[in-house]
Amino acid sequence: MSQLASASQLRMSFVRWALVVVPAIMLLGFLSGTVSGSGEDNAWFAELVKPEAQPPGWLFGVVWPILYLLMGIALAIILNARGARLRGIAIGLFLLQLALNLFWSPLFFGRHEVSAAFYLLLAIWISALVTTLVFGRIRALAAWLMVPYLAWLSFAAILNYQIDQLNPDAERLYVPAASSEIGV
Q: How open is the CA angle 93-64-153, to the nearest 5 degrees?
């Protein structure tokens, strides 16, 4: 017997990883966006001049869960690749790029730091690219699952840059709270 685990045991190990990792990543992404007040309901964001390429707000609510799902599956594949050279480095890189990703919404929507958020996006893109390349050395499928995320990050960086250019004073933009006074 040359195998330590059967094919079905390996599949079940992957499924267990996926059942833990995918919901965790999706929950963290949801919490990052929710805590920071991301989206079109954010009064500060609503006041910004948007680039022509700005998609409708609902699209972000569709795209990000899909991206987090794909990222979670990719990580589960790597976690399941026991004994693979570079596995520990790949996991560390993934966690780094995920932490950076989760900090973007609070920086952009919460702190209104548009310029800093752009530079953070560049760091996320670089770390996600390196993660993808290392994933590819372990399991090609895991790397391919990261490609849509890299594409979206590229698009997001362009949007962030254009918003920064169109709103040079975005950090100082003040949006008063809604008034509850009734005019007489």
A: 55
